[in-house]
Structure formats: C-alpha cells, structure tokens
Amino acid sequence: MTRIIAIVNQKGGVGKTATAVNLAAALAATERRVLLLDCDPQGNASTGFGLRKGGPNPSFYHFLIGRNPLAQAVRTVVTPWLQVVPSSPDLSGAEIELVAATARESWLRKRLKGAVDGYDMVLLDCPPSLGLLTVNALVAADAVLVPLQCEFYAMEGMSQLLRTLDLVRRGLNPALALDGILLTMFDSAAAGQVQIAQEVRQHMGEKVFETVIPRHSAVSEAPSFGKPVVWYDLHSVGAQAYLRLAQEVLSKGNRAP
Q1: Is 98 left (phi over 0), alpha (psi -120 to 50) or beta?
Q2: What is the pLDDT of residues 102-130, one digit of tens each?
Q3: What strand order describes the sheet that includes 34-38?
Q4: Residue 181 bridge partners (DSSP)
Q5: Domains, the chain, ranges and CATH?
Q6: Is pLDDT at 154 greater than 70 in this prediction?
Q7: Which region, left, alpha or beta, applies to residue 209 given φ > 0 means left and ψ of -120 to 50 means alpha?
Q8: Res. 257: pLDDT tops 50
Q9: Using one digit for the tens of pLDDT, what is the confidence trace for 36-77?
Q10: CA 92 to CA 238: how far, in whole Å?
Q11: What is the C-alpha to C-alpha distance for residues 243 and 231, in angstroms, rounded to an integer?
Q12: Taking CA 220 as the corner, what is the angle to CA 164 and CA 189, rounded to the nearest 5 degrees?
C-alpha cells in the first residue's frame, strides 16, 4: 500500500530538502519503489538529483494544475527504484492560481489519487512556508516528517507548525499522522545543540526519531555533484545516518494501521 509522507518545516535552512533527497535515495536502496515530488518552487530537490529545473518537460507544476498526468512528469534517476517529479519556476505562481479554485487545499490529493498506486513510498518536499502548496501536501499526505535543526529559532517555529498540523487534521485530513521529528545538522560538540536535543526528546518523546543526522561535509558536498549522499559517499557518517533513518521510517509504516 502506498504511503505518502510530507517533509515539512516552515523555516528554511534546517535540512528539509537534504532529508527529502537523501531519504528518498536511502529508501530506494532497500528496493522500495519511491517517488519524490519537488513541491518547492526553489527546486533544490530537483538539482539534488542533477535534474534541470524548468525546460520543455512537464514538471510538478503541470501535474498539480492538471495539464499533464503523473507519468509524463516523472524522471527516473540512476536506479529503477527511484523516480522524481522536478519543480519549475512556474510553480511560484501556482498558489495565486489556486486561490480562486474550488477545494483549493485538496488539488494535490485529487491528482495523486490512483496515480501513485505503483509506488511503495511517496515523499513530498515542501516549500519553507505554511502556504497553500504546503497545505496541499499536508492534505494529500498520510504522515509528516519534520526536520529540526537544534537551534533556538528552529525550536521557536515548532509550536506554530504543530498548530498547523492540528488545524489540517481537524478540518481537512483527520488521518494525518506525525511520523516524527528528525534532528538534523547536529554537532555533538556544541553544548547548546545537545541541550536543545535533550529538551526536544523530553517534550516530544517517541515522536523524535532515534536517528540523528550529523553535520558532515559529505552531506553538504553531495548536492553540488547532483547526487544524494548515499550515492556520493556511501560509507560517510551522513550516508549511514540516512540509511538508518530509512529503516526507522519503514518500521513506522509497518506499524501504521
């Protein structure tokens, strides 16, 4: 059964897209059929796989507005287990186009229904905001994964995000689950980060993934080569962390009703 996970944080620079790209590649390494949709107009997940943003080929924008079916927008990258629907600059205007649309929060859910049945996992890389594109992803998703950098400002936005998730559950998607909070860009030598990580675990308990993504050069270098870190340097601590995360995500999916 296909499981749809939205990767969300309204704050930029917390490792959200790195998580989307590297988790997709790590899940594909387990021979699950994985689809990553780049729902962010910035298109960083697309470049993280070496895909060109824009151009003549259909993109996530064309799929979202119903101009092209999913099959025309997907790109296979390196392995047959992983496909990506790239973003395009046109997506920056999609929120304006959807403002006057009927059931504007549910367009993505309607587009995905029946179109993703051949996949085991679908990941939605959301923009760093709580706008209409992100809300569409939350309405379409079965679960949410929240990357969280262990710093004060990232923590400050967590309560706002949790309130948004609660509003979506009450009004639009009652089945939406919080798969977990992922601590990212973690430096165990920084006392402040260690303290924040402890506080997050105390407050959120089992909702925090056991896996922690370290701050590591391979993770930050890989996108410049158009590769996830598990393809760029499999034996690096960053790649190994994302492989462990994939196993945790699969375990949570197996426990889901």
Answers
A1: alpha
A2: 788 999 999 999 999 999 999 999 999 88
A3: 75-76, 82-85, 34-38, 121-125, 3-7, 143-149, 177-186, 208-214
A4: 146, 208
A5: 3-251 (3.40.50.300)
A6: no
A7: beta
A8: no
A9: 999 999 999 999 999 987 677 899 999 999 999 999 999 999
A10: 31
A11: 11
A12: 85
Q: Tokens 């959301």 appear where?
A: 126
How far is 45 from 61, CA to CA, in rounded Å? 14
Nearest to 187 by CA among 153, 151, 163, 157: 151
- Number of neighbours of residue 13 by Cβ within 10 angstroms: 13
Q: What pLDDT is attached to residue 150?
A: 78
Per DSSP, 257 falls in state -
Token code pair at residue 46: 């697309």
DSSP string, 85-116: E---GGGGGHHHHHTTSTTGGGHHHHHHTTTS
Does the model's pTM come out above 0.85?
yes
What separation in angstroms does the CA of 34 have from each of 26, 94, 98, 122?
10, 25, 27, 6
Angle at 226 between CA 238 and CA 157, to 5 degrees: 55
For the four alpha carbons of 183, 136, 178 and 232, in that order, the dihedral sign comes to: negative
Nearest to 41, CA basis, from 96, 104, 110, 111: 96
Pairwise CA distance, residues 156 & 116, whole Å = 35
**186-227: pLDDT as tens digits:** 877 777 788 888 888 888 888 999 999 998 889 889 989 999
The widest CA-to-CA distance across the chain, in whole angstroms, is 51
- Tell me the C-alpha distance between 181 and 144, whole Å: 9
User: Is 34 within 8 Å of 120 (Cβ atoms)?
Assistant: yes
